[in-house]
Sequence to fold (341 residues):
Amino acid sequence: MSADPIRQAVDQLAVRLPGHGRLRRSILREVEDCLRDAAEDHLTEGLDPHAARLSAVRQFGDLDDAAAEYRIELAAAATRHTALLIAIGYPVMLLPWALLNKVFPTHTGRSAPSWINGSFTWIAVTSLVLAVALLVRLRARARSAVAFPTLMNALSALGLGSATLTGVAGYLSSSLSTAASPGAVEAICELGTEIVSALFVAALGLSAARCLVHRRRVFPGAGRPEQVT
Amino acid sequence: MDQGSIRGRLDAMLLAVIEDGPLHGYAVIEALSARSDGDIDLPTGTVYPALRRMERAGWLDGEWSEAGGRRRRVYTLTDAGSQALHQQRADWQHFAARIAGVLTPAETPSPT
Fold:
């Protein structure tokens, strides 16, 4: 560990913040920049460089308090990521299937029963509407400085539920589809579309699970809203 | 000055100092101190997370910029932030007027 008090403080804050994402890096960079600004200020007041840095770190206050506030922002980012993945991912996943059915009209004929194909649309629309509603609620919570463990639970459940239902519907669609072998081009397009769908379902499941992990770290045992400030 | 009371109004004060123009994190703290004649001296570690939360709320727009060889995250008040500040000012003035009304000694009627 470096002897620079500012570097030490930033390193200690980093240990207290989970993950390796862009927001975390941005937070740590901002804290270091501001501590260096404060140290420069103390330097002009006549302190020696080391004392100026120490003073800036003391002025920052309790690292645990700051880390607790920042963990809430990291949790909010994980929640927003899952909601956006649902809101953007489902249309992106369904579009290639719609194109496939358009370009290869026979594809629809070979497919599974229509209720299974219809279920994709229902899952997508329901998940999308709920995700947008939760996104709006998340922003409102930031405005009233109220924490959001219930919101995170809801979004984790939505993400995991949607991913599971989509996966099951995909499996049924594939196993119940009838027949005649497609041409080579159609088979390649279908395989590509299936890969895109599988990647989306996996990404959604992982994102929702990460959201749940953040919830447990930031609001352990919480189901009730709590005041942040 | 009581830090607990200050924290209850932290959002409004931060929005107010950024209303004058975009500021980076440490400049926000300097402006807060200058506008309170040094009476408001919060731990800086309470201010930076609050700026991030207000950015999430859509009240501030935070962007990295570079000046004098230093990268800094600069915050600008958004339209929603301006409306929130207007509302919080009105709330504060209403609150302060009511408290003043209670704390001001009642005028005793002069004996006639």
In short: Helices of chain A lie at 5-16, 22-44, 49-60, 63-103, 105-110, 114-143, 149-176, 184-218. Confidence is low (pLDDT under 50) at residues 224-229 of chain A. The interface with chain B takes residues 26-27, 29-31, 33-38, 41, 59-63, 65-66, 69-70, 72-73, 76, 138-139, 142-143, 145, 228-229 of chain A (CB under 8 Å).
